Amino acid sequence: MQFYSSSALITPFKKDLSVDEAAYEALIKRQIFQGMDACVPVGTTGESATLTHKEHMRCIEIAIET
After folding, report:
1. pTM (2 decimals)?
2. Would the N or C end of the chain have less CB density within 10 A of its end CB?
């Protein structure tokens, strides 16, 4: 039997309340470096209910690109 681990990501914001894309990418890279097999972007810990559709999609794009 093989086991995998994934982590639900937070969504970092700048002071102006826009998504901090650089911090978000760094967070994903840190999770991968620490051995996560997968990351879960914009889940319930990712403040998805407060993001616009465009922000939501951008977070997913960053996760895929990273």
Report:
1. 0.85
2. N
